[in-house]
Specification:
single chain; mainly alpha; Helix Hairpins; two-stranded antiparallel sheet; 8 helices; 2 strands; 2% strand; globular; Cobalt/nickel transport system permease protein; transmembrane helix; K_chnl_dom
Length: 235
């Protein structure tokens, strides 16, 4: 039993970046049904799966930090239960719901910004280019778009009407998630546009940071690849 448990933890550690990639893709393609209750369940499952995969990146020796982040996951789960109750009982106070949304996206922003920092540190510390480093770079880019969606969600909650072209209801987050990645990749279809000054400012910042990420990460990968080739030739 101990060996099986040990093997399971070794599997989680060895494939931690692959698992994070799968969780990011799941979070990206999750379908939002029109009814709020089903949508809550699917979004909660995708979000918590992504958070657990992210916690798996943290060293096992840092039990305190892992425990704190697990509490974050529990808090997110409780929040989605609250939203589900709102579907059953429409009399739930709107202001309380708004406050909960602000807390939710603030926590998610802080959580995934920290995870992004861990990923970028892994890239910087890598001595040579490997498939793992490439996967980490991919995860970092996806996280960038995800973090952007949390920022835009906060803006829309604090100042409703900051974006045009958004659907009503809970599926609004799916539109904001889409907008974040379209902005990050500088495609900009124009179906969703920022209206408020804050929305425009952060849209520009996301474009700038997205281009900065691509430039810097590619430069780091090229330098490490060249350095690795020179070492192999010398040896």
């Amino acid at each position: 039993m101990v060996l099986n448990k040990k093997s399971f933890y070794e599997f989680l550690h060895n494939y931690r970046f692959a698992l994070l990639t799968l969780a990011l893709i799941l979070n990206f393609i999750v379908i939002h049904p029109k009814d709020l209750l089903t949508s809550n369940i699917m979004v909660a499952a995708a979000t918590i799966t992504l958070m657990l995969a992210s916690i798996n990146l943290i060293n096992k020796s840092k039990k305190g930090l892992r425990s704190i982040l697990l509490i974050f996951c529990l808090a997110i789960f409780i929040f989605f239960i609250f939203l589900s109750l709102k579907e059953v009982d429409p009399s739930v106070e709107t202001s309380l719901s708004k406050t909960s949304y602000i807390i939710l996206y603030s926590v998610l922003f802080i959580f995934f910004t920290f995870i992004a920092f861990l990923l970028y540190r892994e890239i910087y510390r890598a001595s040579k280019i490997s498939m793992e480093v490439i996967v980490i770079s991919f995860c970092g880019y996806f996280l960038f778009g995800t973090i952007g969606s949390f920022i835009f969600s906060l803006i829309e909650i604090v100042e409703p009407g900051s974006f045009s072209g958004l659907n009503d209801g809970f599926n609004k987050f799916q539109d904001i998630y889409f907008y974040s990645f379209i902005t990050l990749t500088t495609i900009g279809y124009g179906d969703i546009t920022p209206l408020s000054p804050m929305a425009r400012t952060f849209s520009v910042l996301l474009i700038v940071f997205g281009q900065y990420y691509m430039t810097v990460i590619v430069a780091i990968l090229v330098i490490k690849y060249t350095s690795g080739k020179e070492k192999s030739i010398t040896e």
